From TrEMBL:
InterPro entries, alphabetized: AB_hydrolase_1, AB_hydrolase_fold, Hydrolase_4
Name of the protein: Serine aminopeptidase S33 domain-containing protein
Cross-referenced Gene3D superfamilies: alpha/beta hydrolase
Matches recorded under SUPFAM superfamilies: alpha/beta-Hydrolases
Pfam family, one: Hydrolase_4
């Protein structure tokens, strides 16, 4: 017992020192890393789903190279959907969310943010916001897109990025205009969701407020979504979403201006489009029915 107590004390002190160093690093650098979990694994490619596709590589103004997939409509297109995916993995794990659209006569363009998949760099909030705009600017330069309706579909993190992008696009009167914005399982603000997630873990619970202050509040979706009007907005959120609680979707819908639509679903996070009925609801929104 004479030697065990000092060893236990030493181990405890080392653990506390490590936690202190980690918290110090978070306070110095911010905790925006809680939003990004990229990997470089190829889970599935469009050809495995019997989809035609092209690899697209786009250069960002700050020197990164982004990789995306262009999925043409299977027949005469009704429009084009720009898809911004969630915070984990890469486009090859998120493609099922939009793989159904080409058969419904919609082109799809989906892109990986910096650090995801085959895109270069490392992700952060500012960088991924620039990446979302870079992808949209590439898309609207394509001749087949300019004469067709254009929709932005953002899921989870992609919805937060898409809200900021769409609000700026509308305010600047960019051309071609967006014909609709669809937000699926999106959090209402970067700072708000960071505080909630930090509060879920006992080690970070005491620091949830000071750490969340290191997250910029310049791009909070609930503050930006009203600026998308008069472009129609559809907010989709599940009562069973275990990642982004349902109240985030309600807050976004309440903050949006008309015209707006709310679709309450009953699936796990990022699983909306496995249900054909929910696909039909989105198609009706895009087709103005």
């Amino acid at each position: 017992m004479a030697t065990r107590t000092p060893r236990l004390l030493l181990t405890t002190l080392r653990t506390l020192a490590g936690l202190t160093a980690a918290f110090t690093l978070l306070l110095q650098t911010g905790c925006s890393s809680v939003f990004f979990y990229p990997d470089q694994v190829t889970y599935i490619t469009p050809d495995r789903l019997n989809l035609d596709y092209e690899n697209v590589f786009v250069e960002t103004p700050d020197g990164e190279t982004l990789h995306g997939w262009w999925l043409p409509a299977s027949s005469e297109p009704k429009g084009t959907v720009y898809f911004l995916h969630g915070n984990a993995q890469n486009i090859s794990s998120h493609i099922m969310n939009v793989a159904w659209l080409p058969e419904k006569r919609y082109n799809v363009f989906l892109i990986d943010y910096r650090g995801y998949g085959r895109s270069t760099g490392a992700p952060d909030i500012e960088g991924t916001l620039h990446d979302a705009e870079t992808g949209l600017r590439w898309l609207v330069d394509q001749p087949d897109v300019q004469s067709q309706p254009l929709f932005l579909l953002g899921q989870s993190l992609g919805g937060a990025l898409g809200t900021a992008l769409a609000s700026e696009w509308v305010k600047r009167d960019e051309q071609p205009p967006l014909d609709g914005v669809i937000l699926d399982g999106t959090f209402s603000g970067f700072r708000a969701i960071a505080r909630e997630k930090l509060g879920d873990f006992w080690l970070t619970w005491p620091l949830q407020i000071p750490l969340s202050w290191t997250i910029t509040d310049e791009y909070e979706a609930y503050e930006r979504i009203g600026d998308i009007s008069p472009v129609p907005v559809m907010v989709i959120h599940s009562v069973r979403d275990g990642i982004i609680p349902f109240h985030h979707g309600k807050r976004l819908y309440e903050a949006a201006e008309e015209p707006k639509t709310f679709l309450q679903t009953d699936t796990p996070h990022a699983s909306t489009f496995v249900i054909p009925g929910y696909q039909d609801e989105v198609l009706e929104f895009m087709e103005g029915e």
